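Thread: Newbie trying to understand structure tokens

Hi all, I'm a second-year student working on a class project, and my supervisor (Dr. K.) asked me to get a predicted structure for one chain before our next meeting. I've only ever worked with sequences, so writing a 3D structure as a token string is new to me. If someone could post the tokens and maybe explain what I'm looking at, I'd be very grateful. Here's the chain:
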Amino acid sequence: MSHDIGVWIAALLTLGIFSFLYRDNPVYKFCEHLFVGVSAGYWVVLTYFSSMKPNLLVPLFGHFGEERNFLLIIPFVLSLFLFSRFFPRGDWLSRWSIATILGVYPALRITGFGQSDLVQQVGGSILPLWVAGDPLTSFNNLLLVAGLLATLVFFFFSKEHSGAVGGVAKIGVYFLMVSFGASYGYTVMARVSLLIGRVMFLLDNWLGLVRF
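---
Reply by user tm_fold:
Sure, no problem. This is what the structure looks like when written as tokens:
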């Protein structure tokens, strides 16, 4: 019984979202607001149990007899300062927390982003232009390196894009167009896959018209 009720609720909410294809209406707005509210609540609970509780509350306010890390009082107080935004007279306290976040978070993440977005990409582009006995791999490596260099020339603005430099930069534009097109196509394909999943849910789980 509970499974059937859940299926009916999910089906009606799905149809409520699809009703926007006809026009904007109160049913769609209700489903939209419900989705946003449930998603926000889910992420709040997930953040509390996966991050805040094990990393702050348990080490700071653990069970009796356990060793406590009193240095965590500093981030605990700063986290409380964030809620001062709701009080006009004390909203300036939240600036300390925001300044700490904007200063500490980039410093912690710059190593990870530098490793993933710079070092690994540079290493991935250092390829042999000729692989003995494998002409297809050689062609792929040559095409990747040529496209990378042409794209970098397009973003080189210290010299006017004319003559040979302009020709190479134009080739870089073509590589960028192919890259953006592939990225957009992947995004569309992912959205269509989600649509197919919901349609199959309605036809199979709800109406029972299609069985696999």
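A couple of things are worth pointing out once you decode it. The helical segments are 2-18, 26-60, 73-81, 94-125, 135-154, 163-206. Residues 79 and 96 are 10 Å apart (CA to CA). Feel free to ask follow-ups in this thread.
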